[in-house]
Structure formats: structure tokens, C-alpha cells
Amino acid sequence: EAEVAQSPRYKITEKSQAVAFWCDPISGHATLYWYRQILGQGPELLVQFQDESVVDDSQLPKDRFSAERLKGVDSTLKIQPAELGDSAMYLCASIPRSGEGETQYFGPGTRLLVL
Amino acid sequence: GEDVEQSLFLSVREGDSSVINCTYTDSSSTYLYWYKQEPGAGLQLLTYIFSNMDMKQDQRLTVLLNKKDKHLSLRIADTQTGDSAIYFCAGSGGYQKVTFGTGTKLQVIP
């Protein structure tokens, strides 16, 4: 069964360092999401892509976070510089195409710890 | 935007039924979802219901939707220890933006 792939699974970094996370959605899925999930909370949308275009990045802290999906397939989320409050699980999800009723398929997540 | 609220914790005995409740604010939510998250893992979709439905049953899972009160519930029949996890309610608004609740931690006591 096709799955959303994410790497790394775990990342420990020091504050002020740069980190990057990678996501490969299910083949053929046009819509890709990055979520941040702080411990004890539900996922919060950071950015949504439709193919290579950003559809919604209203909750992305753009002073330090950036996301790209250059060829409309895999995607990278970067944080520079990382802060202590960025410690969280970063989840990637995809659906075939934005519309009604498509369910999101989630990857296993990248757990980030900033020291 | 949408707000989705859930109780934080539920404890049940193995074999009993579990009922997890959720309230949401956006009456235009088209789909409402229930996801399961096990420790250290991503989210697994359990079931979803279209907003014009009142009930959906899928094996041990029953979803009830009261659109008037904006209340959604998930009933798990014959709860097993493997059902112990965090359960998230979520609603989709415009352009497939999904808002998640804070999650309900289900503890199943053997």
C-alpha cells in the first residue's frame, strides 16, 4: 500500500541551527500539507500546496520557516534558525487533489527536539 | 476560523463501549473526521461523515452527528487494549483546510 514518506524520523538540534525535513507524498497526490503538532495538542496547518503552488501559508512563521515543492512532487520544510519552541512533531499529509471528501493520508512524522 | 473542542481524557474497561465527544463551531464544515494516533506515530483516518448524514457505522465504530448542536461523537464497541490511543476530531472547511481538535486520550483498562 502506498504511503507518505518522511525523513528524518527524529532530529535533535541546537537552537539557532538550521533544520530541514523532507516529505514524499503518495504518487499522484497533487495536494500536500505540512502540519506542526506540539505535544498534547492537535496538528496545526503550516502550509498547503496544490502541485507546486502554495495555497495557504497563513500560519507559517515566515521569518524562520520556509517550504517548497519545486516540481510538485516531494517537499522540503526548513527552519532557520531553530528556536526552543519549535520542538514538536512535523507531519506531512497528502490527498489526490483538493476538492470534497478526499481524506488526508499522513506520514509517520518527524519529531524535532531543539536544545 | 473553525474551533474544534474535545474532552482530554477517557478511561474505559476492556469490552465496554467508549464514546468520544467533539464540538465544532463552523456549521459549513462539509466533512467531519475521526483520526487515531498511537504514540510516536502519524495520524490514521478511522472514519468520516458527510455533513448531511446523521449516523455512519463501520464495524465497531459508530459516528453520530448532531448538526443543530454541532456535536460529533465516536462510539467504539467492545473496546480493546489496542484501541488505547489519542483520538482527534477534525472538520474540513473551504478548500480542504482541515482543523483538528486537541485530541482525547483513550485509556483501556484490561
Structure description:
- The complex is a heterodimer of chains A (115) and B (110).
- By secondary structure, chain A is an all-beta fold.
- Chain A is built from no helices and eleven strands.
- Chain A has strands spanning 5-7, 10-13, 19-24, 31-37, 44-50, 53-56, 65-68, 75-79, 88-95, 105-106, 110-114.
- In chain A, the strands form two sheets. In chain A, strands 2, 4, 5, 6, 9, 10 and 11 form a seven-stranded mixed beta sheet that branches. A four-stranded antiparallel beta sheet of chain A has the order 1-3-8-7, with no helix packed on it.
- The termini of chain A are far apart.
- By secondary structure, chain B is mainly β.
- The model of chain B has no long low-confidence stretch (mean pLDDT 90).
- Chain B has no helices and eleven strands.
- Chains A and B meet through β5, β9 and β10 of A and β4, β5 and β10 of B.
Using the alpha-carbon principal axes, give the shape of chain B.
Answer: globular
**Average pLDDT rating of chain A:** 92
Give the largest interface.
Answer: A-B, 28 and 24 residues
Order of helices and strands of chain A: EEEEEEEEEEE
Q: SSE order of chain B, as H and E?
A: EEEEEEEEEEE
| Beta-strand content bin of chain A | over 45%
Secondary structure category of chain A: mainly beta
User: Termini separation of chain B (Å)?
Assistant: 40 Å
Write the layout of secondary structure elements.
The complex is a heterodimer of chains A (115) and B (110).
Chain A: E1 5-7, E2 10-13, E3 19-24, E4 31-37, E5 44-50, E6 53-56, E7 65-68, E8 75-79, E9 88-95, E10 105-106, E11 110-114
Parallel strand pairs in A: 2-11
Antiparallel strand pairs in A: 1-3, 3-8, 4-5, 4-9, 5-6, 7-8, 9-10, 9-11
Chain B: E1 4-6, E2 9-13, E3 18-24, E4 31-37, E5 43-50, E6 55-58, E7 61-66, E8 71-76, E9 85-92, E10 98-100, E11 104-109
